[in-house]
Amino acid sequence: MIHxxxxxxxxxxxxxxxxxxxxxxxxxxxxARPQIHGEGSANRAPRDLExxxxxxxxxxxxxxxxLAYQLLDVTAADIEQxxxxxxxxxx
Length: 91
Description:
The chain is 35% helix and 29% strand. By secondary structure, it is of the alpha+beta class.
């Protein structure tokens, strides 16, 4: 029997033109646990061309990477709770 679950990641992107900064927040929603938030940012150097999509992509990639590492930590903690032994999950 196949059991299918759907997890949702919502990404919010804030562009701060005056600071040349883009910030992204990735939120993982599941039925099983509280939300997990990952954050990432991108900064544009004064000499760089203004291409908002690049800042969006970089900030989002960093937010998703942060989210992934947090999910690995949560997973390790869950395994440790069951096995009562330290766990290290390489990323």
